[in-house]
């Protein structure tokens, strides 16, 4: 995003949060928004790994318990309908 794009991209309600946090300073509000993007980028990577870890653990435990694949992979047709 280029500096100054945030007001055009966000709804007034969304951007107002940043304006309020920046005490009315639009430039600072944009900086806060860009900082939020950077923080979100870092968090989403961690969340993705956590999701995969939990899914794989659930799959292993349920498969061991039931003796059959419990979480099916739709990208692998051989696992559908087992």
Keywords, please?
rod-shaped, mainly alpha, 82 residues, 3 helices
Task: Note down, in words, how this protein is organized.
The chain has 82 residues and is mostly helical. It is 67% helix and 0% strand. It contains three helices and no strands. The protein has helices at residues 6-9, 12-21, 26-66. The longest helix has 41 residues, at 26-66. The radius of gyration is 22 Å and the shape is rod-shaped.
Task: Describe how the helices and strands are arranged.
Blueprint: H1 6-9, H2 12-21, H3 26-66
Helix pairs in contact: 2-3
Give a summary of the structure in a few sentences.
By secondary structure, the protein is mainly alpha-helical. 67% of the residues lie in helices and 0% in strands. The protein starts with 5 loop residues before the first helix and ends in a 16-residue tail after the last helix.
Could you tell me how far the N terminus lies from the C terminus, measured between alpha carbons in angstroms? 46 Å
Q: What is the H/E string?
A: HHH
Mean pLDDT: 81
Rg computed from alpha carbons, rounded to a whole number of angstroms: 22 Å
What spatial form do the alpha-carbon principal axes imply? Answer: rod-shaped
Instruction: Compute the number of helices.
Output: 3
Number of strands: 0
| Low-pLDDT residue intervals, each spanning 5 or more residues | none
Integer tally of domains: 1
Q: Could you describe the largest sheet, including whether it forms a barrel? A: none
């Amino acid at each position: 995003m280029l500096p100054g794009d945030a007001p055009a991209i966000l709804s007034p309600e969304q951007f107002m949060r940043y304006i309020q946090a920046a005490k009315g300073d639009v430039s600072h509000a944009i900086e806060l928004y860009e900082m939020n993007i950077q923080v979100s980028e870092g968090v989403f990577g961690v969340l993705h790994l956590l999701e995969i870890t939990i899914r794989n653990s659930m799959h292993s435990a349920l498969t061991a318990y039931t003796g059959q694949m419990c979480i099916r992979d739709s990208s692998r047709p051989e696992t559908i309908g087992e």
